[in-house]
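Annex B, item 7. Sequence and structure tokens for protein A, then protein B.
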Amino acid sequence: MLLRKALILALTTALVMAPATAGAHPRPTNGFAKWGPWNQKLPRNVPLAPNSQAIVDNIKLDKEQNYGSWAINTDEYSAPVYTVGRHTPRRQWRFSDCLGLPHLAPVITDSLRSVPTPGDLIVSKGTDASVAIYQPSTDTYWDFWRAEKDALGNWSACWGGKIENYSRNPGIFDNPLGATATGLPFGAFTIRIEELRRGYIDHALNIVTVRTRANCNSWPATRNDGFVEGEDIPCEGQRFRLDPAFDVSTLTSPAARTIARAMQEYGLIMTDKGGALVTYAEDPRPHMARNGGVDPYFELFDPDHLVEPDGPEKYVVLSEIPVERLQALPMDYGRNRSRW
């Protein structure tokens, strides 16, 4: 799903930050630089792509033809997001080369060399087997794709990357690193459980659809794995937003209202292609392990228990957000405003 074509073309949790000091502007929850593409609010009168509606119509068609929903990926095809301490044991990870691209080994060697690896580390369900790790004491971030632990406890990954000086990075891996097909880190866009609890998200989210445009990536993406020809197919890295005139208060779920406001204020960035229309939230299982096995999303998505039994909430929580009210921004939107 994520990397095959993108890597060949390229070379061929919440993240809990230190509290802000008195009088200082609080750091974005995702911890990346405030001036990066994820953490800047969109102007209300932002320009739109000339073919915005045609692009959005194709996304709507992907939704209709693939399960009929805009779902939130949590424990499958998203990522657990770990914040680890200074003394977390460091391990040498191995390059698994699941794509048969041995010439990539030197590129990822440094990212695998010394990874702070919790003993209870898990990866997402599904074939992506992704995970994100942040160590505040070294201001370093890792994410990995197709990560796996063998019978002896040794970890390997087929791809991923490391970002040093995380808090000064705009939220973009150096090409061709990073677990997503666009080189955009999970830590930048993933919805955190704590954000839904507090009722406010202060960064752009991601959006994944079924058909993405071939050989097309828009900043901040550094690469793509698009495969469909056509000017009206969305490009990976392209930015979208929910029409600010849409009345968020009409949404039933408080989590949906929180998410929709972020879509209006910060927007969404197309980070990958997938099997359905989805947005990512952090894998709840590390939280569940600390809290008696209770999945927090049941109450966050459906506090009034309108959906029975527990489980389908992630498929319907965004059902009242009209996909046709998305707006596509111009290619490379924001690049000239960034310090990157």
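Protein B:
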Amino acid sequence: MAIGRSPQSSSQTPDQGAARRPSRARGIPEATVARLPLYLRALTALSERSVPTVSSEELAAAAGVNSAKLRKDFSYLGSYGTRGVGYDVEYLVYQISRELGLTQDWPVVIVGIGNLGHALANYGGFASRGFRVAALLDADPNVVGSTAAGLPVRHMDELESIVESQHVSIGVITTPPGAAQQVCDRLVEAGVTSILNFAPTVLTVPDGVDVRKVDLSIELQILAFHEQRKAGEEPDDRAESVLDRAPGPVRAAAAKLRRAAGGSGKGRSAADPAAKDQAAEQARGKSAKGGDGDLSAVMPA
């Protein structure tokens, strides 16, 4: 059996119609694939409440999309619902689960058992969604040998043998950014073809390997952008202390922009020492003349 390919679970009855059904995976747009888990989550909640059918409008609202987009997405699955009745909830749960590959068991390895790795290992939603944590791996001798979610933390030296014996095709990286690419390379060499990356870095992988990135800081930054816009505020330099804590290249770029703005006589922050001195000069000029000073040099452009 090829390394990295998950076999069908021995506890499941083979799908006799699978060989006769043409695969539609290649014909489903990536944007639609990204929304299928949203539909499945909403449908699962309806199923747990014993709701038999749901309209496209109701399901779209529960999934956070518009109904026209939902109907278009479902057309790729070959399901159009029944006019005047809606969609059969249980059927759609099965159909979307099958398209997502959740009707079989997917062994997963988690590499990097720090706080986040522990949290993921203890997440109870994996098993109910078709995923099984096959192994927890780390290179830190102080971590190896401990347990998380009832599983022992094994050394990275066992990675290749675990991937082969457990038929693992999905790896989760929760290491510090400096170690993520090396871990990624080892996963790929071992036969893992799908990677979920929680490390705040971009991974380079060969063709045929899929990477999904989860960066919580980026999501928070996007929310900060929207919060600023909702408050009606314009971007300014009041967050100077944040830039001071940013990585070197970010600080250098910010300083370059401030110098360029200062050269034009606009956009210099009052947090800039030179700007403070100029502000004081302007204030003294205003007091002496009894009129408004020229504030263009100290106010943001």
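Comment on protein B: Strands lie at 53-54, 87-88, 106-111, 131-138, 147-148, 151-155, 170-173, 194-197, 210-213.
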